[in-house]
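Sat 14:20. Reprocessing the chain from the morning session after the first attempt stalled halfway. Input below, unchanged.
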Amino acid sequence: MNESNSDQQIETEIHKALLARSNGNEGQARVCARRAAGIAVRNYFEQKKFPINHKSAYELLLTFINQPDIPSTTRQNAVNLTLRVTKTFELPVDVDLIEEARSLCDQLSRL
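Finished this time. Tokens:
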């Protein structure tokens, strides 16, 4: 994937996440944040020539978490982005997935 195109897609997903949050739709904000992170992870894997087999953003994040030599902060961002919500649709920890996605994308752009 073209890097500027993927950067544009990431920014679009982050914008959608922020818009969803401002409209009170935190579930959609989480989905968009994960998609943004998935685009960055896919781009990272493509640069590393890692086979990805058209996985979803969630699957890409799970695969990424298990890679050796990933910086701990980057890995934690990815872990947070894979957290499942509780029965009351809350995350089990207090994190902002939009910020987690931004951090992960920024870090991957420098790896």
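Helices lie at 3-22, 26-47, 57-65, 72-81, 97-109.
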